[in-house]
C-alpha cells in the first residue's frame, strides 16, 4: 500500500542522507521524495512515498522521529490529506494532427504548454499522481520524449498543520 | 584578549568543560593540531592505545562501568575506519560515547586526499548522531551538543569529525562554552504517560504468574534500586537479559538468572508460562525471544522503554510506556502505594512453588549439566566458579565473545550493576581486553577480570602494551579450549562436527611467554587441582597484569540452549537431554 510520510527537518547538510539511509539500510524503497526549505529557511519540508504495511509504516515513522535532525513527522495517508505532484513532459509533435491532439489533452487535463519548438511541445501538469499517470497514458501514442515528475507533496486537510 | 583559542585548543578546552577527564586515542596527520594542544595542558589525560578499535572499546568500558560518557580521539582515514567496530559495538548496546575524528582540510574534502574517508558517511548507520564541523567558531558548541546527545534519551555514540584547517594554531577565535544546550529537534521523553503507567501497575498487581524481564536499560539508567524495590514489594520473579545482569541482585531468591538463548531453564520456562510479562529497558532481542510466533503465548505484555522504536518492534506490547526506566519505575512505586490493590498472595505463592521446583530440578547451580573437572580435564564452567569464589563475587568482569562469555554470564552471579561488561548486541570478539582497560582506569583499586578465549584475545592482544605503558593491572582469564569454541559447538550441533576453520592446528602462541614479552606476568594452568590456588596467586598480584592461560575442555558445550524455531522453553539441557 502506498504511504505518504511528511517530515519537518533541520535544513542542514547530512540531514537528508540520514532520512534516506533509514530506508536504504532496511531494504525499503523510497518511491518519491521532494524536499525544499519552508517559509523559515532553517527548516526543510520533506514528503516521501513508500510501500508498506501498517506495522512497517509505524516503525518507520518512529525511526524518523528518532533522528536528531527531525522535528516533526506525520503519516499523511493515515488521515484526510491533499497530495499534489508536478510534471513536465516533452512530447514529439511531428505534424498538425499531433499538435491538435496534444493541445486537446492538455486542455482536458488542465495543463499548460510551457515551451515549444517546430517538433516538440513541453507540457506542465499538476495534480494527484493518478491524474499524471492518466495524462501519460493519453499522450503515449503521440510520442513521449521525456518525463520529469517532482514526486508527491502533501499536506493534511482541515485545521491540522506541521510547524515548529 | 584573554580567551582567544585556536581550534585545536578549543577541542581540548571543550572536553575539559564537558567534564572529560580521560581520552583514549591515537594520533595522525589530521589530528596533530589537536594533539599539540593536548600536550600543552594537564586537565585532560590521554591514553595512547595500540589500535583505534581499542581506543573506542576502552572508552566504552569506562562508560559502562561508570555511567559517564566515554571519549576517543582518532585521526582521519585509517584511524577513523579502525574506530568503526568500536562505534558499532557501542551503538548496539546504547553506550554513550563521543568519538572525535580528524578530517582532511575543508578544501581537500571530496578530492580523494591522503587519508580521506567520509567518516560521517561511513559511520552514519551506527551512530546516534554525527557532526562535520566546518568552522572554528562552531567547535565548542558542537562538542557540547555531542555530549548532550550521547548521554540523554536512549544513549549512544556520537561522532564529531573535525577538518584539520579549522584546528590550525594560527587562527584563534573567542572561546565560549555553552552552559545550556537546547535543540528544537531533540527533546527526549522522560516520564511515562500517567494513565499507561497506572494500567501497567494494575495489570502487574492482578497477575497470577508475573515475570519481570529487565534489560540493559536498567543499568544505563541507574534504575536497579527502583527495580529491586518494586520486584520485592510484589514478590515477583525477575529475569535479566545478558545486558541487564547485575540490574537485579543475582543471589537474591527472586532472581531467575539470565533468560534467552543460553538463559536458565527456570527463567525461560517461567517466561513461557507467565500471564503478565513486565519488560523494562529490554528490547525483545532475537537472542531472547526464540521464535516470535511461539513467544509467551499466555502473556499480557507491558513494555517500558525510553526508545519508542523498541516498543512493538518485534513483539506487540499490550501496555506500551515510553519513558526512562527510573522515572517510570518510581512512578509505578508511588502508584502502587496509593492503590488499594494488593498482589494475589495465594496465586503468587503457587507460582513460586512451581518456579522453585524448576530451579531445583534444572538450575544453573543445582543441576549437574557437565561431567566434573578432574586432573588434566578442566571444565570451563569450573573456571568461572573459581573466579567467582576467589573474587568474592565483587570483581568487574569484562568478556569477549564465545562460549567463555556465556559461561561467565551464567556462573558469575552479579549482585551489582555495571560489574558485567560485554558486547551483547554486536558480539564483538576483541572487546574484552580494551574494555577492561577502561574499567581499570575508572576503578584503579578494583579487581578487574577479562574473561576471554584464545580466539578473542588475539583480536586485540596488542593492547597488552598499552596496559604496560599505563599500568593497568588487569587479570586476563583465558579459557583456552584451542578452538573457536562457539563456532565448534554450532558445528557439532548443525554440521555433523565438521570443524570448518574453527581449529588452529597447533599454531597458538605460548601465552605465558607472550605476556612476559609485554612485561607482564603469565600463569599457565593445566590441572584442575591447581586452578583455585593459581587463581588466588593471580589476584594477589594486585599491581601487575596477569595473564592466566587455562587449558579447558574443548568438547564442552554451553547449555541450556534454546532450540531453533522453538518457544522460549524449548531447550537443550545438556548434550543428551532436552525439554
Ligand atoms: C569479530 C568477530 N568475528 C567473528 C565472530 C563469530 N564468533 C563468535 S564466537 C566465535 C569463537 C570465539 O572463540 P574464542 O574467543 O576462543 O571463545 P570460545 O567460544 O572458544 O570460548 C566466533 C568466531 C565474532 N563474534 N566476532
Ligand atoms: Mg576458544
Bound molecules: thiamine diphosphate, magnesium ion
CATH topology name of the largest domain in chain A, in short, is: Alpha-Beta Plaits
Low-confidence stretches of chain B: none
Oligomer: heterodimer
Strand content of chain A: 35-45%
Coarse shape of chain A: elongated
Q: How many strand segments of chain A?
A: 9
In total, the number of strands of chain B is: 22
Helix content of chain B: 25-40%
Tell me what the CATH architecture of the largest domain in chain A is.
2-Layer Sandwich
Helical content class of chain A: 25-40%
Estimate the global geometry of chain B from the Cα principal axes.
globular
The profile of the biggest β sheet of chain A is:
5 strands, antiparallel
Strand order of the largest sheet of chain B: 3-2-4-5-7-6
Question: How would you describe this protein?
Answer:
The complex is a heterodimer of chains A (164) and B (579). Chain A has 164 residues and is an alpha+beta fold. Chain A has 2 domains: 2-79, Alpha-Beta Plaits (2-Layer Sandwich); 82-149, 2-Layer Sandwich (Alpha-Beta Plaits). Helices cover 31% and strands 41% of the residues of chain A. Chain A has 4 helices and 9 strands, in the order E-H-E-E-H-E-E-H-E-E-H-E-E. Chain A has helices spanning 15-24, 54-66, 96-108, 129-143; strands spanning 2-10, 30-37, 43-51, 70-75, 81-92, 112-116, 120-127, 144-149, 153-156. In chain A, the strands form 2 sheets. In chain A, strands 5, 6, 7, 8 and 9 form a 5-stranded antiparallel β-sheet that branches. In chain A, strand 2 and strand 3 form a beta hairpin. In chain A, helix 3 runs antiparallel to helix 4 (129-143). The two termini of chain A are 30 Å apart. The mean pLDDT of chain A is 95. Chain B is an alpha/beta fold. A 6-stranded parallel β-sheet of chain B has the order 3-2-4-5-7-6, with helices on both faces. Chain B folds into 3 domains: 4-174, Rossmann fold, CATH 3.40.50; 194-362, Rossmann fold; 380-558, Rossmann fold (3-Layer(aba) Sandwich), CATH 3.40.50.970. The model of chain B has no long low-confidence stretch (mean pLDDT 97). In chain B, helix 4 (78-92) links the parallel strand 4 and strand 5 (97-103). Chain B has 21 helices and 22 strands. The longest helix of chain B has 18 residues, at 345-362. The interface between A and B is medium-sized, with 20 and 18 residues. Magnesium ion is lined by residues 402, 453-455, 481, 483-485 of chain B.
Amino acid at each position: 500500500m502506498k504511504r505518504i510520510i511528511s517530515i519537518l527537518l533541520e535544513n542542514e547538510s547530512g540531514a537528508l542522507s540520514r532520512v534516506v539511509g533509514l530506508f536504504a539500510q532496511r531494504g525499503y524503497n523510497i518511491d518519491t521524495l521532494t524536499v525544499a526549505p519552508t517559509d523559515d529557511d532553517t527548516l526543510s519540508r520533506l514528503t516521501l512515498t513508500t510501500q508498506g504495511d501498517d506495522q512497517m509504516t509505524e516503525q518507520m515513522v518512529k525511526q524518523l522521529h528518532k533522528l536528531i535532525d527531525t522535528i516533526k513527522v506525520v503519516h499523511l495517508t493515515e488521515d484526510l490529506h491533499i497530495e499534489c505532484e508536478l510534471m513536465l513532459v516533452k512530447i514529439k509533435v511531428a505534424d498538425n494532427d499531433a499538435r491538435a491532439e496534444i493541445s486537446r489533452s492538455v486542455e482536458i487535463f488542465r495543463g499548460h504548454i510551457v515551451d515549444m519548438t517546430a517538433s516538440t511541445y513541453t507540457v506542465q501538469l499538476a495534480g494527484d499522481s493518478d491524474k499524471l499517470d492518466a495524462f501519460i497514458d493519453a499522450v503515449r501514442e503521440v510520442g513521449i520524449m521525456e518525463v520529469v515528475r517532482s514526486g508527491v507533496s502533501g499536506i493534511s486537510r482541515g485545521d491540522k498543520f506541521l510547524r515548529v | 584578549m584573554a580567551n582567544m583559542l585556536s581550534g585545536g585548543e578549543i577541542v581540548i578546552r571543550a572536553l575539559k568543560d564537558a567534564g572529560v577527564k580521560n581520552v583514549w586515542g591515537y594520533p595522525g596527520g589530521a589530528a596533530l593540531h589537536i594533539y599539540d594542544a593536548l600536550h600543552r595542558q594537564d586537565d585532560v589525560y590521554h591514553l595512547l592505545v595500540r589500535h583505534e578499535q581499542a581506543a573506542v572499546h576502552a572508552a566504552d568500558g569506562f562508560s559502562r562501568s561508570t555511567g559517564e560518557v566515554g571519549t576517543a580521539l582518532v585521526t582521519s582515514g585509517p584511524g577513523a575506519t579502525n574506530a568503526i567496530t568500536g562505534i558499532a559495538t557501542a551503538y548496539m548496546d546504547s553506550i554513550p560515547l563521543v568519538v572525535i575524528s580528524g578530517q582532511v582540510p575543508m578544501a581537500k574534502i571530496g578530492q580523494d586526499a591522503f587519508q580521506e574517508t567520509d567518516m560521517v558517511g561511513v559511520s552514519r548507520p551506527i551512530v546516534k548522531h554525527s557532526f562535520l564541523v566546518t568552522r572554528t567558531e562552531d567547535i565548542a558548541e558542537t562538542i557540547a551538543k555531542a555530549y548532550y546527545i550521547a548521554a540523554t534519551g536512549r544513549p549512544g555514540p556520537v561522532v564529531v569529525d573535525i577538518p584539520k584547517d579549522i584546528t590550525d594554531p594560527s587562527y584563534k577565535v573567542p572561546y565560549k562554552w555553552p552552559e545550556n544546550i537546547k535543540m528544537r529537534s531533540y527533546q527526549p521523553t522522560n516520564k511515562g504517560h500517567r494513565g499507561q503507567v497506572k494500567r501497567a501497575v494494575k495489570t502487574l498487581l492482578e497477575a497470577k504468574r508475573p515475570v519481570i524481564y529487565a534489560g540493559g536499560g536498567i543499568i544505563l539508567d541507574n534504575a536497579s534500586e527502583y527495580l529491586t524495590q518494586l520486584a520485592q514489594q510484589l514478590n515477583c520473579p525477575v529475569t535479566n537479559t545478558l545486558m541487564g545482569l547485575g540490574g537485579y541482585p543475582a543471589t537474591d531468591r527472586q532472581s531467575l538468572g539470565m533468560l534467552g538463548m543460553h538463559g536458565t531453564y527456570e527463567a525461560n520456562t517461567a517466561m513461557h508460562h507467565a500471564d503478565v510479562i513486565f519488560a523494562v529497558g529490554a528490547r525483545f532481542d532475537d537472542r531472547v525471544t526464540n521464535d516470535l510466533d511461539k513467544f509467551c503465548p499466555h502473556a499480557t505484555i507491558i513494555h517500558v522503554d525510553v526508545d519508542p522504536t523498541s516498543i512493538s518492534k518485534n513483539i506487540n506490547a499490550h501496555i506500551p510506556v515510553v519513558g526512562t526506566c527510573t522515572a517510570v519505575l518510581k512512578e509505578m512505586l508511588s502508584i502502587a502505594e496509593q492503590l488499594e490493590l494488593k498482589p494475589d498472595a495465594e496465586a503468587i505463592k503457587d507460582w513460586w512453588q512451581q518456579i522453585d521446583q524448576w530451579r531445583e530440578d534444572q538450575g544453573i547451580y543445582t543441576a549437574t549439566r557437565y561431567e566434573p573437572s578432574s586432573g588434566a580435564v578442566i571444565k570451563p564452567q569450573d573456571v568461572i566458579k573459581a573466579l567467582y569464589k576467589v573474587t568474592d563475587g565483587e570483581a568487574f568482569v569484562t568478556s569477549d565473545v564465545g562460549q567463555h562469555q556465556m559461561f561467565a554470564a551464567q556462573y558469575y552471579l552479579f549482585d551489582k550493576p555495571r560489574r558485567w561488561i560485554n558486547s551483547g548486541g554486536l558480539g564483538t570478539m576483541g572487546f574484552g581486553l580494551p574494555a577492561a582497560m577502561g574499567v581499570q582506569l575508572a576503578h584503579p583499586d578494583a579487581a578487574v577480570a577479562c574473561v576471554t578465549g584464545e580466539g578473542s584475545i588475539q583480536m586485540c592482544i596488542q593492547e597488552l602494551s598499552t596496559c604496560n605503558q599505563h599500568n593497568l593491572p588487569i587479570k586476563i582469564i583465558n579459557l583456552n579450549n584451542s578452538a573457536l569454541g562457539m563456532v565448534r559447538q554450532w558445528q557439532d550441533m548443525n554440521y555433523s562436527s565438521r570443524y570448518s576453520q574453527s581449529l588452529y592446528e597447533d599454531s597458538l602462541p605460548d601465552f605465558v611467554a607472550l605476556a612476559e614479552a609485554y612485561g607482564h606476568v603469565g600463569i599457565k594452568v593445566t590441572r584442575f587441582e591447581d586452578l583455585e590456588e593459581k587463581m588466588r596467586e593471580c589476584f594477589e598480584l594486585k599491581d601487575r597484569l596477569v595473564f592466566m592461560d587455562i587449558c579447558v575442555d574443548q568438547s564442552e558445550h554451553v547449555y541450556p540452549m534454546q532450540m531453533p524455531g522453538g518457544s522460549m522453553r524449548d531447550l537443550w539441557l545438556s548434550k543428551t537431554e532436552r525439554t
